[in-house]
Design a protein that fits this description.
Elements lengths: L8 H5 L9 E7 L15 H9 L7 H11 L4 E4 L6 H13 L9 E5 L3 H13 L7 E3 L6 H10 L2 E4 L1 H8 L7 H5 L1 E6 L7 H20 L5 E6 L5 H9 L4 E3 L9 E6 L3 E5 L5 E3 L2 H14 L4 E5 L2 H18 L7 E3 L6 H12 L5 E5 L2 H4 L7 E5 L5 H8 L9 E6 L4 H8 L2 H4 L13 H14 L7 H4 L3 H10 L3 E4 L2 E4 L19 E5 L5 E5 L1 H7 L5 E4 L2 E9 L4 E6 L4 E22 L2 E21 L5 E6 L5 E12 L1 H6 L5 H15 L11 E6 L9 E6 L7 H7 L1 H14 L24 H11 L6
Helix pairs in contact: 3-4, 9-18, 11-12, 16-25, 18-20, 23-25, 23-26, 25-26
Length: 767
């Protein structure tokens, strides 16, 4: 089981001997001393003084290393842990560029954040340093019109987001001439968030920025800040189109921590095909929270939704009512709304320890400055190792020892992780994935670039190899016009409107609260069928809504606030056809391929499952039109000879089970959600003539997830087999081979057959 003895809170949780079997691993993370470096000799004296007054006596080694790369004109990505001080690494060279001895050489800085809130927080920090020559300002959708002119003419440190860069700054670059001519640094904060289709769009926006800067004689250095991730230099290079060096050795200090991986037990309940159902992560987390409160261990539980957070808090209160009724008032759920007064009241209650146990949505991860807690419970894998450490890092920040517990959901990825601790505590395994060459992403940005400055042959290398193939089609469709000097945008409407950088193409569906007409947000057209179909439970900022109607003609989903006791999952049927094989590799008698496919999906029904137990409550049919998606997929086949050797297997059930499990495990290797990808398996596919299993990107043109699966196929499919083998069920369950979105009701599935089939597939796979 890999359990090591540890002291304090964890031992108290294990006072009930039946719980010991639920812990699959305990990791003792030792304290780490910080390693300081000297201030670079080019550091502005005033900045050093201000930082010293704020308690920063010297930079950590990673901060100084990244800052020096940037000062030398080398684009750099700093990929270190939470609270490692990444902002100082870009602040040093940025402020130095503004404080040049010769005012004529004074540079400007453009800071990009994925959200307006993060940019506003950075602005507060900058202004708190009281650096008179730094004229910092945010430039976003909330900036008043009269202030925008001042920012363009006078600010030398502009904080914005990729959306504003795409829609306002680049199309109006002639009004930014003075700023862009002197642009020395582009800071890309939270770079790990630029992934999938959104990351692919941002990659093209950054290429457009570099092109416009070159027009004014500037060649800015890029400084990227990211959470820990696999191959950060490769990702940063793909995002910016530049050669980028990575700094990854985290030299910041941290206190000791105990980290437990926890798997809820199987229950007597039965799900689809009679499979056993595990106790829910929320029910388990509620009990753990109550026990820690009894021991006076101040604990924060992170849960995905507000309803889930309330469920955890309610479970803890219920347990305390029986064991220690006087403590029930010391447990709370974090309220949605996030008003400033709510934040302050919450911070004060935690600081004064009048609240010992708090269950919160993940919004608290960035929304409130809470630190120095005793323990953190993470209810279900939060998506990435970076998020896991960010949440766990809330405990013990003051340097004292801390406890973190990851409670697994009934899900293949969670199951794999709690049985393979090296994937959590070893080298970061997830890679930030994006595909700037996606034609559905690139085409609208070529139009936007042509509207900014006519495209020329010299731009081909900047925008990627597929540019030359796409331009004739854009001319044929009347979007661009070819002239001797290049390609021109000739229409009256704004070219930037062609690219919805937060979406995946198509008209986004607006999610509107029926009673008030309030716009809650938008959903990609491609995913609307599965997320905002009639009857769907829709979660927005931790609040729960029920979808009343989905109007595809008007691209509107009407929702109403609700508090259902269940979650919903769409079920679809899928057909897939191979359009073009781009790459393939032989593993003995098996062949692995990557290429373009047409996927026809139709959502036919949705399931309802009880939140507390995961018990299936029923299924309702849906009448939605089929959608055909041209995207990218990875697929594998086995030769007829090897299939004959597996003659005793239920081939369809084995392939189906392997497909489900591999979809569940791909997010371990590509930073995506299992809902971003889909799969199809068949004992005999018409395009290959063989048993074939496909896993495809659920976004038009592809998002890079399947490509990552192809690149890491041996490790990914080995992990898939290990996840199935590690599950303690007999014939398959939601923790290994069952999928909540299976259009065939998880039938047929063959767990043992999947193990044999994957073993055969991997027989000659590379190590």
């Amino acid at each position: 089981m890999g359990v090591q003895r540890s002291s304090s809170p964890l031992d108290r949780l294990l006072a009930d001997p039946t719980r010991r079997e639920r812990i699959t691993h305990v990791e003792n993370v030792p304290a780490r001393r910080g390693r300081r470096a000297a201030w670079p000799d080019w550091s502005p004296g005033l900045l050093v003084e201000r930082l010293a007054a704020a308690g920063i006596e010297a930079p950590w080694e990673h901060q100084a290393a990244a800052a020096q790369h940037a000062r030398n004109g080398r684009s750099v990505i700093l990929a270190t842990g939470t609270a490692s001080g990444k902002s100082l690494a870009y602040l040093l060279p940025s402020i130095a560029a503004i404080y040049e001895d010769d005012p004529r050489r004074e540079g400007t800085v453009l800071y990009l954040a994925p959200t307006k809130a993060l940019a506003a927080d950075q602005l507060r920090s900058l202004r708190g340093l009281r650096l008179t020559r730094v004229r910092a300002a945010t430039y976003d959708g909330d900036t008043p019109r009269d202030e925008r002119s001042w920012v363009r003419q006078h600010a030398n440190y502009v904080l914005t987001n990729p959306d504003m860069l795409h829609r306002s700054i680049l199309p109006g670059h002639s009004r930014w001439t003075s700023f862009l001519r002197r642009l020395r640094y582009v800071v890309v904060d939270e770079a790990h968030g630029y992934r999938g289709v959104f990351g692919s769009h941002v990659a093209q926006v950054l290429r457009r920025l570099r092109r416009v800067c070159a027009r004014y004689g500037a060649e800015p250095t890029f400084i990227l800040a990211s959470a820990t991730a696999s191959e950060p230099a490769v990702t940063a290079s793909r995002l910016t189109g530049l050669d980028v060096v990575a700094v990854q050795d985290d030299a910041s200090p941290r206190g000791p921590a105990t980290f437990a991986l926890w798997e809820p037990p199987l229950t007597d309940l039965r799900g689809e095909q009679g499979a056993p159902v595990r106790r829910t992560a929320t029910a388990e987390a509620g009990d753990l929270l109550a026990d820690l409160v009894v021991e006076g261990v101040q604990t924060l539980a992170f849960v995905r939704s507000r309803r889930g957070a309330e469920s955890v808090a309610l479970g803890a209160k219920r347990a305390l009512h029986e064991a220690a009724p006087e403590l029930t008032d010391q447990v709370a759920a974090y309220r949605a709304g996030y008003l400033p007064e709510d934040r302050r009241a919450l911070e004060n209650a935690l600081r004064e320890r009048s609240i010992i146990g708090l269950a919160s949505t993940n919004a608290l991860e960035l929304g409130v400055d809470v630190s120095g807690l005793d323990a953190v419970i993470v209810c279900g894998w939060p998506g990435t190792r970076a998020s896991l450490w960010q949440q766990a890092g809330r405990a013990g920040r003051a340097g004292q020892s801390a406890l973190a517990v990851l409670v697994a959901r009934d899900d293949p990825l969670d199951t794999y992780l709690v049985h393979h601790p090296e994937a959590v505590f070893g080298t970061p395994v997830e890679a930030t994935v994006l595909d700037p060459d996606n034609p559905y992403v690139l085409e609208p940005h070529l139009c936007a670039a042509a509207a900014e400055l006519p495209l020329t042959e010299a731009d081909m290398e900047l925008f990627g190899s597929s540019t030359k193939d796409l331009l004739p089609d854009l001319v044929r469709r009347g979007l661009l016009r070819r002239r001797p000097a290049g390609w021109y945008w000739t229409r009256r409407d704004k070219a930037a409107d062609l690219a919805d950088i937060r979406g995946a193409g198509g008209t986004p569906v607006q999610v509107v609260e029926a009673g008030t007409g309030r716009l809650l947000g938008t959903v990609d057209e491609a995913s609307a069928h599965t997320t905002v179909h009639e009857g769907a439970v829709y979660i927005h900022q931790g609040e729960t809504y029920l979808v009343q109607t989905l109007d595809l003609d008007d691209s509107v989903a009407l929702v109403e606030a609700a508090d259902p006791e269940y979650s919903t999952t769409a079920r679809d049927v899928t057909d897939i056809g191979i359009v073009e094989r781009l790459r393939s590799t032989a593993w003995g008698e098996a062949t692995l391929s990557y290429g373009t496919v047409d996927v026809t999906r139709q959502v036919v029904a949705y399931q309802m499952r009880r939140l507390q137990t995961g018990e299936r409550l029923g299924e309702k049919p849906l009448d939605l039109p089929p959608r055909t998606l041209r995207t990218r997929a990875v697929w594998w086949t086995l030769s007829e000879a090897r299939i004959e050797a597996l003659a005793d297997l239920d081939l369809a059930g084995a392939a189906h089970a392997a497909e489900h499990a591999s979809i569940g495990l791909l997010p371990l290797f590509a930073t995506c959600d299992r809902w971003d990808i889909g799969g199809v398996s068949t004992a005999l596919h018409p395009d290959t003539g063989l048993l074939t299993v496909f896993v495809y990107d659920g976004h038009e043109g592809g998002a890079g997830f399947a490509e990552r699966g192809y690149a890491d196929a041996a490790a990914w499919l080995r992990a898939t087999r290990e996840a199935i083998a590690a599950c303690e069920c007999e014939a398959g369950c939601p923790s290994c081979i069952q999928s909540p979105k299976c259009g065939n009701g998880n039938d047929p599935l063959d767990k043992r057959g999947a193990l044999d089939l994957l073993a055969e597939l991997l027989r000659d796979a590379p190590e």
